[in-house]
Every structure is written in structure tokens, then in C-alpha cells.
Amino acid sequence: MAAESGHGDHQIDGRFNRRAVLVEEAQRRVLAAAGTVASEHVPLAECGGRRLSRELRATCDWPPFARAGLDGYAVRAADTALASPSNPATLRVVDTVAAGGLALAAVEAGTAARVMTGAAVPEGADAVVMLEQTAEAVAGGEKAALIKAAARPGQNVAPRGEEFRLGSPVAAPGELLTPGHAALLGTFGYAAVPVYKRPRVAVFATGSELLPVEAPLAPGQIRDSNSAMVAALIRECGAEPVLCGTLPDELAALREALARVSAAVDMIITTGGVSVGDYDAMAELLRGLASYSSSSPAPAPSMLLFNRVSMRPGSPTSAALLDGKLVLALSGNPGACFVGFELLAAPALRAMQGDPSPAAQAIIARLSSDIGKGSPHVRYVRAKLRFGGDGIVYADPLAFGKSSMMASLAEADGLAVIPSGSQGSKEGDVVQVLLLKRTC
Amino acid sequence: MAAESGHGDHQIDGRFNRRAVLVEEAQRRVLAAAGTVASEHVPLAECGGRRLSRELRATCDWPPFARAGLDGYAVRAADTALASPSNPATLRVVDTVAAGGLALAAVEAGTAARVMTGAAVPEGADAVVMLEQTAEAVAGGEKAALIKAAARPGQNVAPRGEEFRLGSPVAAPGELLTPGHAALLGTFGYAAVPVYKRPRVAVFATGSELLPVEAPLAPGQIRDSNSAMVAALIRECGAEPVLCGTLPDELAALREALARVSAAVDMIITTGGVSVGDYDAMAELLRGLASYSSSSPAPAPSMLLFNRVSMRPGSPTSAALLDGKLVLALSGNPGACFVGFELLAAPALRAMQGDPSPAAQAIIARLSSDIGKGSPHVRYVRAKLRFGGDGIVYADPLAFGKSSMMASLAEADGLAVIPSGSQGSKEGDVVQVLLLKRTC
């Protein structure tokens, strides 16, 4: 597995020639290499959680006609100006309009039409009086309504085009589609919705100590738990994992396995083998590549983007282009793997689906306990959010400092960002928390 | 569509004989009728977002052996007590242990073993010194390590069983499985995960004015946008929608359609037809049922649970058991349909998957603007959450008072709960906000 070393920066820099980049710079390089995937159409009822691939516009005014907001009588407000329970206005009923039905008669002075919720308000009427403020009657041998309250013009009527005008934008490219979008797109007749395809991501776990999950434990060995975790993280980003199993710490096997899958996927994620150990094959593979240069006119098909990031956990997290394919080499340590995914893989996967702001959503919260001593790296500490009765959000740090701890991975709502520097953060300090994209 | 009337309570009560229950009572009745679905096994990499159907326990101690936290030398701390860069301790190297490899030699006084991250720490050693604080050497013709810093006992060693003891609980029944859980379950060899099945939910839209989404608009008609919205909401709850199309406002057709699908699904959701209009077929169907009675010893296979809820929007929201199947009859008004789903259908679907606290997650936020005047009903106002730089959460109300407005459905993060009473809520008031379960 060979995960994180992560101490004694300058020594590592000197000895292993790995220069740390800031998280923001690492993100910039990964996003620049990410591109977007192709688009496809999905049935409207399956669009939730997908990202729109082009702007959609209103195909009609909405509402498409003046619409009754509730059950009652469509009237001319002026006819009801003096109406009250003791002095109701008596209006001849000229029509009854169901939702979906057509108004046959116009409402003229002294008349009304019975309308159901959602029905088109007949020509001439400018208000709807709710049924509960009316009574049925007969006047002059004809059906009539007693209106017991004065109506304001426009009351309980949604005018045509109140919400949308024909051609106005309904949803933007890259938007994550919610159930509310499904309602909007249905309204405007989008039975098939253009969305970005789900990026396909190959997942490899490297490390000679790794067993498949279904295997019995053997001395000194552990099961590959990162592949399933990364698969679940990939799905949360709307992408599709392609599980490629485990690889031993052998350069040739690794190189061959990545090359074999490369053309069939949009990104490759590996876990493990990125540290400074004697058997860190992924690190070895990346050492063989040309380094990133901000001054090169065009990116080389194969190049190292970075092999050290100024963050903890996950400082050996690396990224490269291999034959034009983005490869993210995450730490084998579960906690560091998780942080590397959230900071680098997740934004890349969202960007590939057109997300115009693919970084994790950041909120401000107050720390509910001290976070240790200073660190030369920015730290990303798993935290549980707690919403106080006072409207304040608190971040409760979980298992600080133990990046190998797995139990807290399942509980975390976010990553509290503790700035680098000589001091840690104190209880009550406001800190940025990156939200993990979760369904709860 | 015939959606919400929702005004003049006592009049409706008197005239239409529909007695409003409080939201909490409506939820209680629906949850009591919900039950749980059967369970099934899914592959580990597909468990994210599902709910566990039985407790899972640690199948071994974790870590399973004393584990090196980083690359370096396993030593006896006592041997390094006086070590410093200028006065390193010289220890004979007796072994090299890769992650996954076996330690062949014990570390005795005056010796050390080279260990990689994740390797088993050899017998006798009680600390690991990071590689960066060491140097290679030769002593007495044999390979040796110069240790340049004093080690604390236990340093950089995760003792066996530090995180989990064999048999201790790892995840509880009903828990929503996250990527972190996938890592944990993989660690303990759960290649197949027991989860509750996805409840199957039939979705009908009722209303003679409704056109299929793919149809061109006709005068007075609108497209069925609720079915797609409800389908997306159902999926967000981990359940599977079964779209059954639209039905006219005709009692016989409605009754027949529900009966036909009933045995194949776990729940039925209808939209529309629940109000007091002349063509509200769903309301008519429910009127024919025996009423809920808290004193009846056993629930009847068919009974009305409620047909009016003290909430706005969505007061005509109704629920029933029909031949033993839970039927939720939501308003046809998109906004009211949405609120009815979040308050009643979503908790029921989560409970059916074993969620021990299936109500929506409620947080406290500060209102960023006034919310109008009083209401005899509790109001659920769509809101966007905003996290201030001061650690305070603000709820920005969206499109207050327009339950038909669809644009804000796509934007809302939560429903702000405005208590019933003679006054509304003011800017700066703390209010409860029910979080919509979203992936962002």
C-alpha cells in the first residue's frame, strides 16, 4: 500500500526530489487536463442527478393561459366591489370550466363562470373567488352564484406567462438536475433531456499486500478496501467506476495494466504506491515522465502534473497525463485517499460533466474543539457538522491526526480546512468546511 | 389537476367534512402503515446510497497486526533514547519488511528492521522512525541504520485492534451506506452487502387536463410534469419509481388503475384530484373509505388515513390504505406536491428501508427576510440556505406564497417551517429548515 510519509518536508524535497505544489495549483492542473465528456439523451424521469449538456429554454409562455389558482367562480372584480356575506353579489353562471376544458362563454358584466383549480379563466373575467366565499342560487329562473366577498382584480388568477416567457432560459449547461428541474422540463415538453455522459473511471488498487475483499486474511496482508470506497465516491459524482482489481508493486505490471484500460475510460484512478518506500511502483512510474511546465506551449501526451501536494493527509498524491489520459494516483492510506479524491478527483469528474464551479462547496463553520499544533501543510480534517439552536454551524473534528482511521470516514459531513502555519486552530474559530457531496 | 383550495378552514370542514390533522399526526399514521421491504445482497462497490438491513460486525481485529504508519526503521525505542543528528544510534539491520510481507527476524536490543508503510512491525520493536530521520551505514561489516532522533514507544505504530476489536459493531441496520462504509465493509471482507431492497412506487398523475410530456400543448391543457418530478424524488430516497402515466378525473378508471398495479408495488403515489372541485376523482375515491380510528384494534385493509393536513401548501394531501397498500394522494399543484412528498412520502420510503429516524433532517437557520402575515396552518416555504462568513446559516425564502411557482423548486435547499399563528416570521428570526436530501 505504501501510503503517506508526509513529514520533514525539505528533507523529502532534497532526498526524493519531489516538489510540493499548493492544493489550488494541483487543482488547476488537474482541471486543465480534465476536458468534458460527450453528451447523450436520457428519459425525463431519469434526469435527476445528471448534468445538463446544453441550455434549455421555455417552449411556451407559462402558464400558457390565465389560470385559476383554486376552485371557485371567475368574475369581473368590479361586479363584486360591494359584496359581503350580508350583501352578496348575485351573478348569472354562464359556464363551468374544468381543468383541461375550454371556456365556451365569455364572462360579461353581471355574470360569472364556475372554474376548477387549473382551469383557463374565461375571457372577460379578471379574478377568481374561492368556492368557500360563494353559494349557489337561482335568479330569474337561471343558475346563479352568490358572491359574498369583494374580489381584487387579479385575485387567484395566474396570468399567462407569469413564470416564464416563451424562449426564456429554464436551465443552464452543467446544471445538476433536481426533481424541481424535472418538473420544469416536463412542463416544457422535454421528454428526453440532453445531459453529459457519465464519465467512466478505471480504478486500480496497487500494493502487493492487498487481498481481494472476498479473500480470507493472511499474515501481514489486508483486504483492498480502497477500490470499493473510490467506486462509491465516483458514483456520488455522477460517474461510473470500472473496477480493475489489485496490482502488485511492480512497475511493468502497473504500466501494462494502465495502458490496456486507457482507451476505454475517461480517467484512471490508482490508490497506493505513491510514497517514498522502496516498493512504491506508482511513484516509480511517474518519476519516468517529463515534468509539468507552465511555459510549454502545448501539453505533452504524457507528463507528470505533480507528485507532491502541500496538504495533509495525502501529500504524496500525484497526477499525470499518460497517453493523453488523466491519471490520479491517490494515497493507499484510506483517509488520505478519501481527501485526495474529494480535493482532486471529484472536481475533475464534475468538470468533465460541465459543472461551471466544480470545486467542493465550502461553508464557514465554528470549530467545536481545538485542532492541535501547527503544520507546514494545510490540513483537511474530517468533521461532522452540527447545527446549533442559535443558527450557528459547528464543525466537530473527527479522529484528528489519524489519517489511517477508517471509522470516521463513514461519519464525516465535511473536511475542515486548517491553514498551514505555526499554530493550529482553536475552539470557536471560524474555519472553512468543504462539504462532502452526500445524499443526507 | 384540481389542486389546493386550502383557505377558510372551518368552512371547508363544515361543507366538505374534511377534518385537518396536524403534520406530525399525518406522519405518524403514514409511518405506522409503511412497514419495511425485504432485503437483498448487493456487491460491495454498489452499496453506496443503500440502507443496511442487518448489523455488520468486525470479522477481525483492525489493524490485524501492529502496523507501520510510515516508511522507516522499526526499532526498540529504548535503543534510541540518546539519539540525535550529531550522536546517532547505530543499529544493525536484521530484516526488510514490505507491506504484505512477513517479518522473519525479531528486533532485539541493538537491532532494527527496515519497514515500509503498512508493513507488520516485527516482534520486539515498539516504534518506527521515519526514513527521513535515518541514514544507511555499515557497522562491523554488516548493514546498519543510523537513527538520528529519539523515538517514543508506540511512535508511528498502529497497535493491533486499535480501531476495531473482533466482533465489535461496524454499521447498524438502517444506516445509509457512504463511501466510508464501503471502505470499512471491504476491510472486513463483506464482498456482498445485505441491504433493504429499493421500494417500488407506482406513480399516477390524475387530471383530465394532463397531456403526456411529449405531446404538443392544446388549449386549456398542460403537460404532466409531476410524474417526472415525483420519479426523481423517489429516486433520491433510494426507491424505484414505476411510472403509470396519467388518468382522467373518473372514479372508475382511477379505482381500476390502482387495483391493477397494487400487488406489484410497495406504495402508490398519485398527484392531483384531491381538492374540493367537482371533478376531484381521487378525493371521491377516498371519501368512500372507512375513516381512520385510533381506537380500532387492527387496521382495516382499506381505510382513509386522512384527507386534510394542517399545512400550507398541500392541505388537501391525503393518504389511505387500499387493500393493504399505502396510497399517498398528493396535490396536483407542483409546489404542494413537492411539499407533500418531502413531509410524507420521503419519510415513509426511508422507513421502508429501515431508517430509524426517517423524518427530514431539520436544522436551525436565521431568516434573511420577513415571511408575510399569519396563517392558521404551518407553512413550508422553499428556501435557499446561505452560509455566512460568521458561521451563521441563513434561510433565503424563495417565491413565498406562490405554491404553483415551479422555478424555485429547482433552486430550493430546504423548506423553512413557519409556525401557524397570527403573525408570520421576521427577518433575523431563527426558524427550523427541513433539508431536502440532495447530492449538493
TrEMBL record, chains A, B:
MoaB/Mog domain span: 202-351
Q: Does the keyword Hydrolase apply?
A: no
**GO molecular function per UniProt:** metal ion binding; molybdopterin molybdotransferase activity
- Give cofactor(s), names only: Mg(2+)
Q: Does the keyword RNA-binding apply?
A: no
Q: Superkingdom, according to UniProt?
A: Bacteria
* Enzyme Commission identifier(s): 2.10.1.1
Which GO biological process categories is it annotated with? Mo-molybdopterin cofactor biosynthetic process
**Pfam families, alphabetized:** MoCF_biosynth, MoeA_C, MoeA_N
**Pathway assignment:** Cofactor biosynthesis; molybdopterin biosynthesis
State its role: Catalyzes the insertion of molybdate into adenylated molybdopterin with the concomitant release of AMP.
NCBIfam families xrefs:
Glp_gephyrin, molyb_syn
Q: Which PANTHER family does the UniProt record give?
A: GEPHYRIN, MOLYBDOPTERIN BIOSYNTHESIS PROTEIN
What family does this chain come from, according to its entry?
Answer: Belongs to the MoeA family.
**The protein's name in its UniProt record:** Molybdopterin molybdenumtransferase
Q: Which organism is it from?
A: Paenibacillus nanensis
